[in-house]
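yo, Pentatricopeptide repeat-containing protein is done. seq:
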Amino acid sequence: MLWLMNAYCKARKVSLAVEKLQEMEAKGIEPSGHIYCILINGLGSERKLGEALKMFEMSKANGVAQAPTYNAVVWSYCWSLKFDEAFRMVEEMRRCKVGLNSRTYDIVIHHLGKAGKHEEAYSVFLKMSNDQGCDPSTCTYGIIMRMFCSKGELDKAVKIWNEMKAKGLIPAMHMFATMISSFRQANKLEDACKYFDEMMDLGIRPPAMVYSKLKQALLDEGKKDTAQSLTVKFNALRFAPNPMKRQPKSAK
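structure:
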């Protein structure tokens, strides 16, 4: 039942997921906190805030409201651009000690950035470490980094990148892709190549589109040797055996 309700919500057929909840209740089956979380997220993403909040109250009445459930409510408020209410929910999490975490802040920061409230998003990012267990994660840094890149503020994106690495966090593939593409678009090809090389050194395979666009930009600037070196590195990693893939046993 859980996977079906989740599938309905992802397909934006949340009304069908709610019907499944009603079927469960009719059979005397108590929904888990995970089920409420899925439904609140689904309703929130369709901007059915009132229904999402009713689900939240039901989860509290049934004693299954936990940190992910509260996060789903924060998500729902943010989808409806009701950031003051989202912050009040964060404060309630803090007051009730239900497990305020970096995911909570990631939700708020992401939606503030999406709404163009970049200064507010960055302010939340700077303050989140004040809450125990809420240090920025790789995901958090990625959100802030993409926000600065989208504004063309590459110096700030680099600052965030360096701060993340200083904490021992390893950038994900999409984060490298964002930095490479942003510097390429700014015609700062040397910097773009630096992130490309770093990505390759970590054994992370860049998306073919990121590679091909950077290569073409280098060729357009007459940097044929650099483009060739890029290709050699890309192909070396592209055709290297995947260490996570089980190799066939050799014949004896």
